[in-house]
Amino acid sequence: MEVLRLPLSASQKGKLISAGYTSIASLSSVSPSHLALELKVSETEALEILKSVSDGSRLQSTSSSFTIVNGAQSAWDMLQEEETSVHITTSCADLDSILGGGISCKEVTEIGGVPGIGKTQLGIQLAVNVQIPYDYGGVGGKAIYIDTEGSFMVERALQIAEACSADMAEYSRLHHKGPQACEVKTMQPKDFLENIFYFRVCSYTEQIALTNYLDKFITEHKDVKVVIIDSITFHFRQDFDDMALRTRILSGMALNLMKLARKFGLAVVVLNQVTTKYADGQFHLALALGDSWSHSSTNRIILHWNGNERYAYIDKSPSLRSASAPYSVTPKGIRPSDSNNKRIKHV
């Protein structure tokens, strides 16, 4: 159970979330004196909060006592699910190829790279491409775009939507003829923009609260098939002296995102920044948020420059082999590299 559902004041809930306590489980072993110190409240108030937590825990235990074993699933069923899983195209055939068809639903995919490499461009492209109808080989869903940096550009989203609409019209002209052509509807740019739910987040507490709210929102909008966070990093790289607190907050957020992906069969895409890491006597570029965060996603893709060309490299995945592929950022969006010597490299 989330702390947002406890019978506490808005101020108390806000203090708990700010301190990294987003669920009842995270408060299970906290002493009143320690909680009072972290929330800057009296021990009496801390005791009242923990009593509400205890009551909520008992209710949760009672309500879930008959559903503890409902999650059982055979390995065969899991294999069947994987073989029929859907993917969201990136609009780059080489990149889709190394990803097994595109960004996989039911999984959390982390995409990181240096500024200007095209992370936000890829995020916007996915928010548009997830809407491609089934008749065109797409998923036919909607997108949630969580913007923590203010980098989402609606004008750019319109450009990509216009290009996608034109591609669909061309595909329809070539493949849908006669009576079938009348039945297949081409989406207009306005349709794409209307199906992107945009959230602007200005602090890490807002980011935590929104992550906790997504379950309810997606329950009410079941056609959402991708959640994009651009970026997961921004609000966690400043104002954090307590690294243990940051790790606890990020771990809770990662767990929520994984649950969303599995529960609703959607793709979660988190964009990450880079930082410098000292190893072997020299500094290296590495994705931000440290080693503990690196285990929070199913797949990890690193975008990088190779000369004047952009490349995507699969750094971590339980089901995909390490490989890299070139891609381009064009006025139409993400597209295959226009290099004459492009190639996919498998490691």
Automatic annotation (TrEMBL):
Coiled coil: none annotated. Pfam families: Rad51. GO terms for biological process: meiotic DNA recombinase assembly; reciprocal meiotic recombination. Residues 84-274 form the RecA family profile domain. The keyword Ubl conjugation does not apply. It is found in: Nucleus. The keyword Hydrolase applies. Residues 322-347 are annotated as: Disordered. PROSITE patterns: RECA_2. Keywords: ATP-binding, DNA damage, DNA recombination, DNA repair, DNA-binding, Hydrolase, Nucleotide-binding, Nucleus. Its main location: nucleus. One of its GO terms (molecular function) is ATP binding. Belongs to the RecA family. RAD51 subfamily. This is DNA repair protein RAD51 homolog 3. The gene is RAD51C.
